[in-house]
Design brief:
The structure holds 2 protein chains of 2 kinds.
Chain A: H1 2-5, H2 27-52, H3 62-81, H4 89-111, H5 125-147, H6 158-174, H7 177-180, E1 181-182, E2 185-186, E3 189-191, E4 194-196, H8 198-223, E5 225-228, E6 231-234, H9 240-255, H10 259-277, H11 280-303, H12 309-319, H13 330-342, H14 365-398, H15 402-426, H16 444-465
Antiparallel strand pairs in A: 1-2, 3-4, 5-6
Helix pairs in contact in A: 2-3, 2-4, 3-4, 3-5, 4-5, 4-14, 5-16, 6-8, 8-10, 8-15, 8-16, 9-10, 9-11, 10-11, 10-15, 11-12, 13-14, 14-15, 14-16, 15-16
Chain B: H1 2-29, H2 31-35, H3 41-47, E1 55-57, E2 60-67, E3 74-77, H4 85-88, H5 100-103, H6 105-109, H7 116-125, E4 133-136, H8 140-151, E5 159-165, E6 172-178, H9 191-203, H10 212-215, H11 225-233, E7 242-244, E8 248-249, E9 258-259, E10 270-272, H12 273-279, H13 282-292, H14 294-304, E11 312-313, E12 321-322, H15 340-347, H16 357-368, E13 373-374, E14 379-383, E15 390-393, E16 398-400, H17 405-421, E17 433-441, E18 450-458, E19 464-473, H18 479-497
Helix pairs in contact in B: 8-18, 11-13, 11-14, 11-17, 12-17, 13-15
Classes of the chains: A mainly alpha, B alpha+beta.
């Protein structure tokens, strides 16, 4: 599936090329790739029914068609408002999202009583809800494309978004556990039967703020330095913001009991800092701070306990999940067994037993899918993720302004890091943490936030590949004139 | 800013490379280990996908599977409860299986190579026919009698065993170990409850899970005299030969005198071999054993089946419930020369002589069957899932020939005298010829004696019907007489079940 996507890339899309060579919009390539993705999803759904029900119901194509329609709608919005956006992004994400909905529907089939299996309503169960969330999330992404005609307009709201991000991160930590805790991780806001994961949105808001802040501070952060052992280290007072983010992420680790989110925020910040300053020292400082902090939390957890005990426990499970296979290590052990059962080729879509794996619809969806599509299928999914990330980074390379570079680079990296944290967690590469698998896991917050992230990447890639009128400013759609942006320190690199 | 962006791209590729390498480790290298892991619920679910076959006795299923509608589609149940527990064993969801459930697991589960034809047929017809059925040799009536009589024994023994075999074929007619257990809680789909029930049984000091009839050895006491008598008959002693006896005899090198169970037993200086067996004369057999020597005794015991440690009771080709080896033990002094004291005590089934109840029944069966010992077995037939095809039918075969027909005939006379005139009167069945030998074995300095009885029954034409061994652990006084009574009941039950030949 991904092999087909690669040749569609324009070889001329690297940013340093003169603008005139970027003039092809490649929307038709996007459309045909999208159709291909939908055909794959439909084939997946049909295989699931054929295996799990021994028959393909006449309605098997309806969820796929609903997804296809809304993706087609987004494609039309892109055609209209972002005609030069990267053509591989939408089809790749559509494929992942379609497989996710298909697998969740497959999980519902396994859960349903045998008599009801052939008459599962289209919006019923986890799969149906995920389908509805997808429709909403894609519309939200389309809405963002409509409102935000130029990614630089985001910088206008940088401080608001930064504040909102911090508040969103903090809410679950300060809320009482009964409003915020699910499965021993305080990551939620729960009101009635409804729960949202504010961290998913906070990640976007914080990154926008980081990008804006670092563009303004990059000169001082990258120039004022002391040289120690051949590496340039920043001045002490410039370390302030990094330390603040470090402390916030450690607080998240301790009070929200979630290593993954903490690692995600901190990784996101350090990498954008590195991109902005081009100083390897920031990476070193970041890594040392993070691993030092995590080790300290581990040691404190084993001696002091209290808020650190959860992290210690998770680390212990990671080190030896089979030490307590029926209780503490149960999830991870079952995840590993599920992956192992899948083997190279998997049991085939619909052929596995996802009901045996706890949290298969959320944290462990990658393992649940892996049982059915095997190592080869999972490798393909990883390649699709990698494609999205590298396409995002490519947009960052090509875009002309520093804010756009940092924004797209940071978002793309964050997406990749999140995939690494959760997939690494369920496969015992790193300690398991409660992250969602982007576009696959059941959950509206995650879907919406990640579709918004894709919308921003689409917008930035459109800005990057849009032809530039020689001598004048970049052609802009009829949105707000960026010249009036208050204090926007964007650099427009003109050829 | 482009240089760091490119490096970030490389970092992401490295991270994904790590994920990919790790997935290879799990899904390729460790795949088989994880797929077949004990913690992997799929292994069990797959086992419960197909209906497991029955284990049947006399046309009644005593182990069967019923549909549940749950995740594990079938629930195993054992309607016989405690009565058949040690033969059938159990097949729990998570824990280890045992008994016929274990040894015939492949056939019962339907995964046996023999059933490949049925599986192929399933593929075409779309039916799930389930596993094969195992038919046992047990006699319902004999099994029930053995279980009830052991439970209700009149000497208050809490531990014991009984086994009955057909001397002509080796087919096991009854096999009971006391105390028993109910296997049903062990196969509960609530695996925590099942494990709890199992742990409780395993920690019970009475060890209800042990199959005493096959895997526990105890000193056989006077029942071992049949082996000594057989060795004597082959070495120039006839049943009418007078052998030295007396109320007490002290072996040459030991200060420990050997006495009889009661002062009325063989106080004369000489008795016939026949009388020595009938009365169970310790002093006579101690001296006889010393005269024969350790080698001849050990050799005769070996010919009866002692020292064999690879016997199994199941099908006749291979597999089955393991049987512990019976032992004659050390009879030599530290220097290597024969120790007369040890030999004397061994000759009356004490010292280090140890025997399983099955071995006792095999001795009686060999005598009844004219000197030919048939290999014991439990599985009579393996029936296809649809019950039309038989995949295995037991063809009885001789295991060994411990004594000649003549010696066997002499031994029969002596054992029948035991039941007619001697210590085993309670085993008598009117209208049938019953032979046997009681045994009372010291279990320790301060604990009650074990009571034994080995014996057989023949019809009027001299055709052997059943050979039995009953053992009551720490039964105290009257233990061997009670064992004889129970043995008589079991043999009567076999006769009734086979139509009173």
């Amino acid at each position: 599936m991904t092999a087909a996507a690669v040749p569609a890339t324009s070889p001329a899309s690297t940013g340093e090329q003169p603008g005139v060579r970027l003039a092809r919009s490649r929307r038709n390539a996007e459309l045909s790739l999208l159709l291909l993705a939908m055909v794959l999803v439909a084939a997946y759904s049909a295989t699931v029914e054929a295996t799990a029900l021994d028959t393909v119901t006449p309605d098997f194509w309806i969820p796929t068609a609903a997804l296809g329609l809304v993706f087609l709608g987004l494609h039309l919005v892109i055609r209209w408002l972002a005609p030069f956006a990267d053509p591989a992004l939408l089809p790749a994400v559509a494929l992942l999202n379609g497989i996710g909905v298909g697998f969740l529907r497959r999980y519902d089939l396994a859960q349903a009583a045998p008599a009801d299996r052939e008459h599962l309503a289209i919006f019923a169960g986890t799969g149906g809800r995920q389908l509805a969330w997808t429709l909403a999330a894609v519309m939200l992404a389309a809405g963002l494309l409509v409102i935000m005609r130029d990614h630089r307009s985001l910088s206008r709201y940088a401080y608001t978004l930064g504040l909102a991000g911090i508040v969103l991160v903090m809410i679950p930590a300060v809320l009482p556990a009964r409003f915020s805790e699910i499965n021993n991780a305080k990551l939620w806001i729960r009101i009635g039967g409804f729960s949202i994961q504010p961290g998913e949105f906070a990640k976007l808001a914080l990154l926008t703020f980081f990008a804006y802040y670092l563009v303004r501070k990059r000169e001082v952060l990258s120039l004022a330095s002391r040289r120690v052992l051949g590496i340039d280290f920043p001045r002490g007072r410039d370390l302030g913001p990094v330390l603040v983010v470090w402390i916030i992420s450690l607080l998240v680790l301790v009070f929200e009991k979630d290593l993954g989110t903490s690692l995600l925020y901190f990784g996101m910040f350090v990498v954008t800092l590195y991109i902005a300053t081009e100083r390897v020292s920031w990476l070193l400082i970041g890594l040392i701070l993070f691993f030092g902090g995590a080790y300290l939390a581990y040691v404190l957890g084993s001696t002091v306990g209290g808020p650190f005990a959860n992290f210690y426990l998770r680390a212990e499970i990671w080190l030896d999940p089979f030490g307590d296979p029926y209780d503490k290590g149960y999830q991870l052990v079952q995840g590993l067994l599920t992956l192992g059962t899948g083997g190279l080729f998997g049991a085939g879509p619909g052929g596995g037993q996802p009901t045996l794996l706890p949290e298969v619809q959320t944290d462990f969806i990658f393992a649940g899918i892996g049982e059915e599509i095997g190592l080869f299928g999972l490798s393909a999914l990883l390649v699709v993720y990698l494609l999205i990330v590298e396409r995002g980074l490519r947009a960052a390379l090509a875009v002309r302004d520093s804010f756009g570079k940092l924004l797209a680079g940071g978002l793309a990296f964050t997406l990749g890091l999140q995939v690494f944290v959760i997939v690494g967690g369920i496969s015992k590469l790193i300690p398991l943490t409660g992250q969602t698998t982007p576009f696959l896991s059941a959950g509206g917050s995650s879907l919406m936030a990640n579709w918004l992230l894709i919308a921003v990447l689409l917008r930035v890639s459109d800005g990057a590949r849009r032809p530039v009128t020689p001598g004048g400013p970049a052609v802009r759609p009829s949105g707000g004139p960026p010249e009036q942006l208050h204090g926007a320190p964007t650099e427009v690199i003109r050829p | 800013m482009n240089a760091p962006l490119r490096r970030v791209g490389v970092v992401v590729m490295i991270l994904f490379g790590l994920l990919f390498a790790n997935l290879n480790w799990i899904q390729a290298y460790k795949a088989d280990e994880y797929r077949n892991s004990d913690y992997n619920g799929r292994v069990q679910v797959a086992e419960y996908e197909r209906k497991r076959g029955n284990i049947e006795v006399g046309g009644t299923a005593y182990a069967l599977s019923k549909e549940t509608g749950g995740k594990l589609k079938f629930q195993r149940s054992y309607p016989g409860g405690e009565m058949y527990a040690h033969v059938l064993g159990y097949k729990p969801v998570n824990n280890a299986d045992i008994g016929i459930e274990q040894v015939e697991n492949d056939f019962l589960a339907g995964t046996s190579d023999q059933l490949i034809g049925d599986r192929v047929k399933d593929m075409f017809t779309g039916n799930k026919t389930g596993g094969g059925n195992v038919l046992l040799t047990l006699s319902k009536r004999a099994q029930e009698t053995a279980y009830k009589q052991l439970q209700d024994n009149q000497v208050g023994a809490t531990r014991g065993a009984a086994i009955a075999i057909d001397p002509r074929t080796g087919a096991v007619q009854a096999l009971v170990s006391m105390p028993s257990f109910d296997p049903n809680p062990l196969v509960s789909h609530d695996t925590a409850a099942a494990s709890k029930a199992f742990n409780k049984l395993e920690q019970d000091p009475e060890r209800p899970l042990a199959n005493r009839a096959l895997s526990e050895t105890l000193p056989p006491g006077s029942t071992f005299k049949i082996v000594v008598a057989a060795a004597a008959l082959e070495n120039g002693v006839s049943k009418e030969t007078r052998i030295p006896a007396g109320s007490s005899w002290t072996p040459p090198t030991s200060g420990q005198p050997i006495r009889n169970a009661a002062a009325s037993i063989c106080p004369e200086s000489q008795v016939t071999l026949m009388d020595a067996v009938t009365e169970s004369c310790n002093t006579g057999f101690a001296q006889l054993g010393v005269r024969l020597g350790a080698d001849k005794l050990k050799e005769k015991a070996r010919q009866f089946g002692f020292e064999q440690d690879d016997l199994t009771v199941g099908q006749l080709n291979e597999g089955g419930l393991p049987v512990a080896a019976s032992r004659t033990g050390e009879m030599t002094a530290p220097g290597g020369s024969t120790d007369p004291a040890a030999l004397a005590q061994s000759s009356i089934g004490q010292r280090d002589v140890r025997m399983t109840p099955l071995q006792g029944a095999l001795i009686a069966a060999s005598v009844a069957n004219g000197g030919s010992q048939m290999r014991p077995y439990l599985v009579k037939q393996l029936l296809a899932p649809d019950r039309t095809t038989s995949y295995y039918t037991a063809k009885p075969r001789e295991l060994r020939r411990p004594v000649s027909g003549e010696v066997a005939s002499d031994l029969q006379d002596m054992m029948e005298s035991v039941v007619k005139n001697g210590t085993g009167r309670k085993a008598a069945i009117s209208g049938y010829t019953v032979g046997g030998k009681t045994g009372t074995a010291q279990s320790g300095p301060d604990t009650p004696d074990h009571g034994w009885f080995i014996g057989y029954v023949m019809d009027k034409n001299g055709t052997p019907i059943s050979a039995v061994c009953v053992e009551l652990e720490r039964a105290g006084s009257g233990g061997s007489a009670e064992a004889a009574r129970i043995a008589g009941r079991i043999m009567a039950a076999v006769i009734a079940d086979s139509g009173g030949r």
